Amino acid sequence: RSSYSCRYFVLPCCFFDFHGKYSRRQSKKTQYREYLDFVAQVGFVCGFHVEEDCLRIPSTKRVSFIGKSRTYPPTEHALIDKQITQFINSRRTCAVAMCDRRVGFKHKDHCDGLCEEVGSEHPEDGTETAGTIWMPGFQPREKVEQIRNCASLPRGFVDEVVLNVANLLLNAAPQKSCSDMQGGNTNTWNQGESLSLREVAEHLNKETLKKLKSEYGGLQTLLKNNHQVFEVLNGRVHIRDWRKEKPASKTKPEVKRRLSAEAFKTRLCWFFIHHPDGCSLPSEACPYAHGTEELR
């Protein structure tokens, strides 16, 4: 709708309509195929010759749509734009319209899901926005998207949470002697207990939880980011035992093998520094450095 010369590319993924989750209407198609047909329909309604392509990417959602040319001459642009508005409004439910009264909707009884947009063509301040010329309440996201996947949290804060959670798991089980480790018996290495994410959260202070709640995924994301120390499975947190990790496959492509080798011992081993029994692996087998002298 931005201009007649506009062209587009879209890779449909999550099943959403204009105003919420997409509702299935045909049981004979898969959910993915039905949603793809809906996205293609949007392109057709907007007056595009819609082309479909399958991308060569490692994903189950690979079908894309491209709109490069219009099905109508420039003189009919206003007519098609009116058709687009009607199409959008036809997919908006009455309930949503009632909630949006404060942004310029006039709701009528028995409207069968169709809502009339009023007072939006001539805003009082003389400025036109997407919310006034296209659809009331439309708010585009910021140009600069805030990173909220725990990656931007202060390093000191993350290290403190990791250490607290690890000590919690280690102290949840009776301490096991590590006196036999020198003799080759590594079964005494203390892996601690597993706890649910809820149990772990209950032992963290309020300030820590407040910081984590502002991040996507919160505590679970932070623990998963620290793959070296933790393993999160089915909502339970475990301390990772690197003796159980599968060795690198010899059938890996040369490029992946080389990248894996280059990443070897580029970070310090958390267990060597913090675990009461040290690392469960000998230095030559551990992918992390046992001391700064081993760092690459």
From TrEMBL:
Main location: cytoplasm
Subcellular location: Cytoplasm
Zinc fingers (C3H1-type) by residue: 263-293
Keyword Cytoplasm: yes
Listed InterPro entries: tRNA_uracil_MeTrfase, Znf_CCCH
PROSITE patterns from the UniProt entry: ZF_C3H1 (PS50103)
GO MF terms, alphabetically ordered: tRNA(Ser) (uridine(44)-2'-O-)-methyltransferase activity; zinc ion binding
GO CC list: cytoplasm
Keyword Ribonucleoprotein: no
EC number, UniProt record: 2.1.1.211
Function: Adenosyl-L-methionine (AdoMet)-dependent tRNA (uracil-O(2)-)-methyltransferase.
PANTHER family on file: TRNA (URACIL-O(2)-)-METHYLTRANSFERASE-RELATED (PTHR21210:SF0)
Family assignment from sequence similarity: Belongs to the TRM44 family.
Record-given protein name: tRNA (uracil-O(2)-)-methyltransferase
